[in-house]
Specification:
homotrimer; about 350 residues; alpha+beta; 9 helices
């Protein structure tokens, strides 16, 4: 009789072009929106107020874009990264139609590339994952690569196949939801600064810090039905090099996004992630701070009411960001850095 | 003037046949479903996706059966077990109609039996409790017995009356909700294994562990409006034999159910509990693991699309279950065991 | 280029008569009601059951009055009290129309008074704040005064202007929602005691205690989009006189209200706060207890079905309230006291 419990896929189980339809479709509700606020303290008006959202022509407040990220990526874990050593990178990360309470998300993935490590203990798996709603409209599409353990180091695997991924998402490829900036209320949104007010090179300290508790990151990670064991099992964690549970990296992304409200309040939509890395691990008890740099500004085709800001947000732990801790002359991150994220924000123009 | 605050009932306050209509009816909403996922990490598709549930002919995703358990039992605490020494057992536990967001649950109980302990400090109270929705349809019906302190050891009480309870719920008595397996999607549900694929005696290690935090079990226990003080008061807890708060036993049941997804993903409904015991106490910081044994298989009257599996799930703390820790030759549980639950699961047939 | 991140207003930034329209309108949903139960364990039937609420003529269960308080006050923090030294007092606190899931709250404030402290390091700011729903109906109106740091002690400020505030809200000014007590179900509500059963001077020990966790108070405070840094940043907290994070005082108010169910279960609506003070700080790990004294009873104009009870609730930490710990002969609070709140409750009459 076949063992019913699933130990997850190991590196040698993946084949080029292999397709996965991930389990447990999820209907998101108003409760996910409220928990997103409770877990991260997000204050972006478009995600908080139906009245604000309707003034933009939306049917009601859409979910925080990063909540969609967490739910989509969470569904892929059981098939793709249950035996991951590390989450190596993200590329071509693009949000599609907005997601509203009542929508049901399903996720599928395709293996884009495979490369065994020279020590033969593990290998890198590239997958493209696509999240869709109940009308099969894409809500998020991205490439992620992870290092995955081999079950058997001696297992023979195929020749390496490393996919090319774009260094960044082109502004013309950003999906702008159907909405109008005519009714955009800056005062309700919490900032007088629009796209024109930002300049490349500008740096913003988001000031506040939030201490992460084990209970918080487990609540969020379970909410996304993400089953990566390192986040939940303190007993097994004692025997790892960290000697404890590791917080889900996405929790830190959402904390940094919520902190970034102070300085980027009108950045009402995360439209794409160009790249990002979890520079250091975070644990219960760490206090997260963040700062951002404006990397680039772009106009959008056929939209003179919305512009795009390419932003790099760096989050740190136990280190306020008034000194803008970035990479040193040696190309290495500041020791307090835990996240380095390069993304496109949409913002109203004047 | 009569004291307004309630100290709960003591053993001598209960009378045979006494009826309670418990306080605080509760309208359950989508938020209870989301919190159930956030608190336990449950991944059963029928409770997670309206699209999946509608394909079975349900109006939308029903609540997790154990959430219904928690809400119903929570309402009985203030009248029945506020002064309990221990929760001794469950029997004839049978779920009725499914519960959906918007339903309002009310609970009543009747005293079925009473027996003073020989030390006269306490006694055992048997109650039958019934939870109903706003249409007076039964959602859950069960017998529970608890040991309750006497206010005054010298108080005279009546002759013992011990009710008979069934050793198990007969398969023919299980309530099968109105639904069809025609649209059951195994891939979305996360498992290729149906009723036919399981055999009595089969054992399944559910692999993962989840560390319980005090904040988590208090959130859930309050959500169910369960007022048992031992779960909330660390100050008073310092003077107990455990020197701290005790987690609500139902929290561990839900964690074990969520863990059991890995191996029993198509067990879409808990239809009955035959018996169960909280073998050991659990506290914040404990890591819960679980394994299951298939005890029995049963066909259901007039249903060839759904079968019943009688399952025994044992949860442990700080002890992974790859060695299937059960009762030893001496009839005693493994020292790591915290829960031993015998229940009926419904599962689609081929 | 102007710094985009907001450091909040300092004492010298406030002007008499200055008006603020606070950021981030918020649509409250069923999830806020469920989280209110999960965070505090509230059991008041009118806020828990749509069936119970409809029997009173309400469209469905309204939100807990204190949840409305938290959301309204939370929105004012960023403009008013981000640089506060202390929250000094509340007055003329009056609830208006009930708030239901789907309502969107917005908040504005006006500066009523200003007085620099003699040391010139800080000053007291009085504001009147008004929360309204999407139909511009008032849901809460109050005066709060806070001590706020000066950015520059040498900054010149205007002459002191100290507003008069009422010592209490007159019973005739209490807003009674449109509802009828005809269908009020005492048994479902959990208490046989109505307005007639209480007498001035009566004291009620609410018995139970609840231990506050850092994770809990941060979840609630973020849910209200309250950005006061002292509640979230354990890293910065290490360098304060408390050496840690401070729990949001409103969290303790809601815990005390939930505990007060045991003795005041039919006090179905908090109609006004006459005054209150956070007598001592609370931290993760503290166990909160509460007791109440009936200060006064009042009939309401043109309502013979509802009466008002003026109640004083005192909450303590790590000290059960069976000894009714109040102010000593020296006028000082008991050392365990953390909250002293004077408010009007509405309760059905016979």
């Amino acid at each position: 009789m076949k063992a019913k419990a699933d130990a997850g896929n190991f590196f040698e189980d993946f084949k080029f072009g292999q397709a996965f339809r991930h389990a447990t479709p999820r209907t998101l509700t108003e409760a996910d929106a409220a928990l997103n606020i409770a877990l991260y303290g997000s204050r972006f008006a478009v995600n908080s107020s139906d009245v604000f959202a309707r003034a933009l022509g939306l049917p009601r407040a859409p979910f925080d874009d990063l909540l969609v990220f967490h739910v989509v990526i969470g569904k892929t874990v059981n098939d793709i990264s249950l035996n991951a050593v590390a989450n190596l990178g993200y590329a071509e990360f693009r949000w599609g139609v907005p997601v509203f309470p009542g929508d049901t998300l399903s996720v599928s993935s395709t293996v884009l590339g495979l490369r065994e490590n020279s020590n033969r203990q593990s290998g890198v798996v590239w997958v493209r994952s696509v999240g869709v709603n109940q009308r099969a409209e894409t809500v998020l599409d991205y490439v992620r690569w992870v290092m995955v353990h081999k079950r058997d180091p001696a297992a023979e695997v195929g020749a390496p196949l490393v996919p090319r991924t774009a260094a960044s998402v082109a502004p013309a490829d950003l999906v702008v939801p159907k909405l109008s900036m005519m009714g955009y209320d800056d005062e309700a949104a919490g900032s007088p600064y629009r796209w024109e007010d930002y300049a490349p090179g500008e740096r913003i300290d988001h000031v506040s810090g939030v201490t992460l508790e084990d209970s918080d990151h487990m609540l969020s990670t379970r909410l996304y039905q993400n089953t990566a064991r390192v986040h939940f099992d303190a007993h097994a964690g004692r025997n790892t090099r960290f000697v404890r549970r590791l917080a889900y990296g996405g929790h830190v992304i959402s904390l940094a996004r919520a902190l970034s409200f102070n300085g980027l309040a009108n950045g009402f939509r995360v439209a794409a992630i160009n790249g990002g890395s979890h520079v250091g691990p975070t644990f219960g008890g760490d206090t997260i701070y963040a700062w951002s740099e404006i990397l680039e500004k772009a106009v959008l085709p056929q939209r003179n009411d919305i512009g795009a800001l390419r932003v790099r947000t760096i989050a740190t732990k136990d280190h306020p960001c008034g000194d803008f801790p970035g990479k040193g002359g040696d190309g290495k991150h500041h020791p307090a850095a835990v996240l380095d994220l390069d993304y496109w924000l949409l913002m109203p123009r004047r």
